[in-house]
Amino acid sequence: MALIPADNTFALLAVFFAITVIGATLEKTKAGQRVSGVMFVIALAIALANFNVIPASAPAYDVIWTTLVPLAIALFLVRADLVSIVVEGGRTLVAFLFGAVGVVAGAWAGAVLLDLGPHEAEYAAVFSATYVGGSLNFAAVAEAIGFRDPTSLAAGVAIDNVVGLGYFLFIGAAATWPSFKGRFAWRTDHLGEPLEGDDAAQRIPTVIDLAVALGLATLACALGTATADALGQPSYAILYITVLMVAIATLGRRWLRSLAGPELVATLFMYLFFALLGAGADIGALLGAAPALFAYVLIIFAVHMVFILAGARLCRLNHAEIVIASTACIGGPPIAIAFAVLFGWRRLAVPAVATGVLGYVLGNFVGIGLFEVLA
């Protein structure tokens, strides 16, 4: 019996918000910068659940699954207008698409070569979704395909963070290798020049900003869910939500690009999602799943690299475009733009964001599509 009963929704949410504060704070420390705040959140939730402070399941957790996760992805897509993505993505977008195809091919090949147990198709779906898009796609696809085993999902997130960190260290080192830079040296003369408008100051969100973003996100969720129900596909509502939100973002691109703060709210919702994964995780089963998933993620990354390098050679892309496209694909816009800043590739800052946002759009379709193929 947990100290906080499952029906005490406010107390559980208070604990989850506290876990989020601790995880986000630790992420800012020198040691925490090497580990995602998500890992701290999951670890804290696992500890509290195993010491019977919080329950493994509760009605509040279902609300996070069914309401906050779709809202989070809708909020992340508020600025996902297709016009800007194509115009600003440029050549980096081409590399990104090759990398995304590589992720799908790697996820399929890994599922064929390895025995991932009863959740093989589900793992392929969530990993392909997160490595084309981001963590929000991981959560959204898990909800869409009914993959709700907290232990299996927590194991996936843990492996993603561990192997993903190694991948970013590797590609960061590769970006400085003379042999790599020499093989992909086309059009590298002006990488340090900024694209127009890429250094606009970030505004502090206002009540109007958040109200508009949340209003549009909830509208897209309502219409997307209703459309899915009407077409007899209620479990795939997230796909219709994605399409509607992209349409809204594209039609209102000039107005919506000035909004501040939607990603902040979406990130908060995702932290709550990872906290509930930790609360329901079984440590023994989590550790048991690690070896196979470790090999699986390595296969995905290896095939991704083969495809993106082949595409770069075919389309004469340079080493910086490869690095930014790959990090946008595997890690999302924050990681990609961090690499652009780190290496002084100011001209690739906007393409890093544009291609990463496209990943958010495509991730759900990729994950659910691969699940249908493998299942």
UniProtKB/TrEMBL annotation:
Alphabetical keyword list: Membrane, Transmembrane, Transmembrane helix
Q: Which InterPro entries match?
A: DUF819
Recorded superkingdom: Bacteria
Q: What stretches pass through the bilayer? A: 6-26, 38-57, 63-82, 94-114, 153-177, 234-252, 264-287, 293-315, 322-343, 349-371
| UniProt keyword Transmembrane, yes or no | yes
Concerning Pfam families, the annotation shows: DUF819 (PF05684)
Name by which UniProt lists this protein = DUF819 domain-containing protein
| The organism of origin for this protein | Luteimonas notoginsengisoli
